[in-house]
Amino acid sequence: MQVHFVTQDQDYPGEHSEVLEVLLQLRGQYTLETLAAQVKKQLAQGYQLVYVQADSGILAVAGFVVTEKLAWGKCIYIDDLVTNSACRSQGVGHFLISWFKDYAKANQCTQIHLDSGVQRFPAHRFYLREGFNIASHHFSMLDV
Fold first, then answer.
1. What integer pLDDT is reported at residue 56 of this predicted model?
2. Torsions phi, psi of 128, nearest 5?
3. In 11-103, where do the E strands start and end?
4. 95 falls in which pLDDT band (50, 70, 90)?
């Protein structure tokens, strides 16, 4: 397994359609085309997209930003994290979280944060096993 970055200067989304198809497993409100456009827009704003690839294909995808917050200092915020449904419970998620820890240290980040939908119980169990804590409630106001 190896982690790769999607970069803006690559043939996008052409050579990354398989990456986007895995990301669609988490973000099903998009089509392949609208997801490609949104990811391209976010890449231009500092969003980073990585994927785990093996000979068998794309195993996992994660989108994140390196940011600084008054509450957290310099940190990684993981916006999107999905293991390909065909590869779950095979150590891919653990591999990716380990990569994030190393990436955080290499970039002088002291924390990693993410939100997870309240209904995603298997994901919550995974995050707790990986050492994440439930540190807050996330509130949102839609349709403003």
1. 85
2. -65, -40
3. 48-54, 57-69, 73-83
4. very high
pTM of this structure? 0.92
What are the E-state strand segments in the chain?
2-6, 48-54, 57-69, 73-83, 111-114
* Distance of alpha carbon 87 from alpha carbon 101, whole angstroms: 21
Do the beta carbons of residue 39 and residue 48 sit within 8 Å?
no
Query: How far apart, in whole angstroms, are the C-alpha atoms of residue 132 and residue 124?
Result: 9
**Cα 72–8–97 angle (5° rounding)?**
40
Distance CA 103, CA 83 (A): 19
Mean pLDDT of the chain: 93
In 24-91, alpha helices (H)? 32-43
